[in-house]
Write a structure and sequence with these properties.
homodimer, 396 residues, Arc Repressor Mutant, subunit A, Nucleotidyltransferase, domain 5, 3 domains, 5-stranded mixed sheet, 4-stranded mixed sheet, 13 helices, globular, DNA-binding, ATPase_NBD (chains A, B), HTH_MarR-typ (chains A, B), ROK family transcriptional regulator (chains A, B), WH-like_DNA-bd_sf (chains A, B)
DNA sequence: AGAGTTAGTAAATAGTATTAACTAATGGCG
DNA sequence: CGCCATTAGTTAATACTATTTACTAACTCT
């Protein structure tokens, strides 16, 4: 079933070709420096197939050949790498506290970026401002001359799985917005792939996509900012984000942790966000609405009240991490989002709680690794760019 | 990445053939009575391809041709159906309270079944007893002459995603059991596909696989018995069960609903199973360990204490259902497991709680349908058989 | 320098779905 | 009744895929 996330539904020889091309490209992404022969061994394709596909990908600027490397006797193989000098992908994030735009090469390296720390207003105005940022980025001499694979946009709310439309962004007050259409109206642009996704999903995708070597079975990116979201990704060569019926997979901020607990802005009571989230800390600690939360709180870390509040929130975060393991069961957990800037006072209690409450099932196996991303300013935007690359690799 | 759930990893022409054959088979399963031309239209394959594949499937006993049906002018098409008269699949369930074995035809109809209501003891003894049941079933004249596609076994605990091995069945006291190997030792059998899976996953798969017409995007089967488990399935033609790193996707019985709550047998505190589960009701209401829980309680429904306990458990179940929607977000929810026999005193509070606590995001869209399976005696076994069929359809 | 080994390419081959042309079967209409 | 238009299904030719096989290229070791 083709939709805007998974373009085609199999069947003909084109599909097979595309599948193999994409597999080969992905093998080089995961294992840079492999030779044609190595790729053939790894993918199960024959030398001949790999050779012809690799040569075509070299010609079109996706791969470049590197140095020779001999292994034992015999003719040395020629190392292959993703070509970081040709194509670029653009990624953008509309966050509660500002706009971010990045340009990446095929290796996931940031070539240029733009940011604007004003809170977005209406969808249309935001699209106009974002379009100017994107144009500024495209004007950058480092990327102006390069062919662009497309643009991915990350938004702070669930996106409909059937159409690229934002359903609801509670922290922006947006409902059912066709943001790509608004952007298209502002950007007169030939362009290839246009994608829209949830911020946590995009971030998760990017973190997973550019992992070198054999990736974990799956990762969950827990995004703690104004709200709490979570994106899951799995699939070595073709990373997939489970989305569910309404795109709510990973909306763990609104799982209920306290039956009949404090009222949440979602209309329910006792949600995780009432225990840990930017807006909850803002309300309970009395930070002015337009001030940067993390900056304000970082300045007040010597107040016992603040430290206690962060520790409480941290323990709730640890509990969320535990529940995540029994429902989505990722093999790696990444903590990101603006709250991570608060550092140890929030993170240490979370990790401690997580460690202390492993049950027998989890204790039986190796502890799931947790990675903390302190500065996730461009993580979601870069992830959106990664999604563009993944799509383009299939369609090319 | 091939593993014991997803056999092959794409690449060659065989794969393409297998993919299309399986797609066509699945189209007939979802939409019985279509003609070759209808299938071509639906799948995007050409008439020629569909024709040759359908004829091959007819020859091998997977499809049968039915009546002609004219639509407007022109030559009438010949209806196609899965052939219920040839192949059979076997499915088995090892439950806390007994063994179940079924034989199904390709349409998911139960041709024969066997049950034994003794609690299993050791893995080896259980395998021996189960083997006798299976042999008895194979001896049944209704199925003895038919070709058998294989055997699927459902167990009450998580199964390792990389190998068909049971990790842990707390309610049986089993750890790291290679149950298929034990069975193979008891059953001298040529046989095709052998599969092992978690009980909730198997049940979910079966419920989803045999849905006629366009299926929901995904379903979650919430299995409430001695413990609480949940299986998720999605994918119209190729249903997939997300499993996660350790096969714990859907282990929602051990999500924590009460921080620092009552001690759970998993080693943690405040798990969902401490609020709703067979073993918790058994303990709190003082039912003897070897008596049938539902029977004992059904006889005591006039006691206010029992009704109150069931209502409390029901509300916890409703809360679990809500949290499920914000993490796995299925488009349909099926309630099954032995506790469902308790009926309205448990189910009504659950549904009421679920209805009353929908948040804005869920309220925005159509209410997710909930289906209650009162008698799920053979649901998991039949689901295991369905998994055999799905696998065989790819491999044939 | 030559044998042995591995990398990569080229031409021939087998297998896939598609295309285009055909036959088959029905309803509608004169 | 007979003809035509229409749709279903089959067949043979075609285009494209990956594989097989045979080859050339390039290096190490002796």
């Amino acid at each position: 079933m083709p939709n805007h996330f998974t373009p085609h539904a199999a069947g003909d020889l084109n599909y097979l070709k595309s599948l193999n091309r994409s597999t080969i490209l992905s093998t080089v992404r995961r294992y840079p420096g492999l030779s044609r022969a190595d790729i053939a061994l790894r993918t199960g394709l024959t030398k001949a197939t790999v050779g012809s596909v690799v040569n075509a990908l070299s010609d079109s600027g996706w791969l470049r050949e590197g140095e020779l490397h001999a292994r034992g006797g015999g003719r040395p193989g020629r190392s292959l790498y993703l070509d970081g000098e040709h194509h670029v992908m653009l990624g953008a994030e509309v966050g509660v506290k500002g706009l971010r735009v990045v340009a990446c090469n095929l290796q996931g390296e940031l070539l240029a970026s733009q940011r604007l720390d004003d809170s977005p207003t209406t969808p249309a105005q935001t699209a106009a401002v974002l379009a100017r940022l994107i144009e500024a980025l495209r004007g950058d001499p480092a990327i102006a001359t390069r062919p662009c694979l497309g643009l991915g946009v990350a938004l702070p709310g669930p996106v409909a799985p059937q159409a690229p439309i934002l359903r609801l962004a509670p922290n922006l007050g947006w409902v059912d917005v066709d943001f790509l259409a608004l952007l298209r109206a502002e950007l007169d642009w030939p362009a290839g792939v246009w994608l829209l996704d949830n911020e946590a999903n995009a971030a998760a995708f990017g973190e997973f996509y550019f992992i070198e070597g054999a990736p974990p079975e799956s990762i969950a990116y827990l995004s703690a900012g104004s709200g709490i979201g979570c994106g899951v990704v799995s699939g070595e060569h073709f990373p997939v984000i489970p989305r569910g019926h309404q795109g709510l997979v990973g909306e763990i901020g609104h799982t209920v942790l306290v039956a009949e607990g404090a009222r949440c802005h979602c209309g329910n009571h006792g949600c995780a966000e009432t225990l840990v989230s930017g807006w909850m800390l803002r309300e309970s600690l009395g930070v002015e609405a337009d001030a940067s939360l993390s900056a304000s709180l970082l300045a007040r870390l010597d107040e016992p009240e603040v430290r206690a509040a962060l520790a409480r929130a941290g323990r709730a975060l640890g509990l969320l991490m535990l529940n995540l393991h029994h429902t989505l069961n990722p093999s790696m957990l990444i903590l990101g989002g603006s709250l991570m800037r608060l550092g140890e006072p929030l993170v240490a209690p979370a990790l401690a709680y997580f460690d202390a409450h492993q049950n027998d099932l989890l204790r039986q196996t190796q502890r799931v690794p947790v990675k903390v991303v302190e500065d996730s300013t461009f993580t979601a935007a870069r992830g959106a760019a990664a999604q563009v690359m993944a799509r383009a690799a299939i369609e090319v």
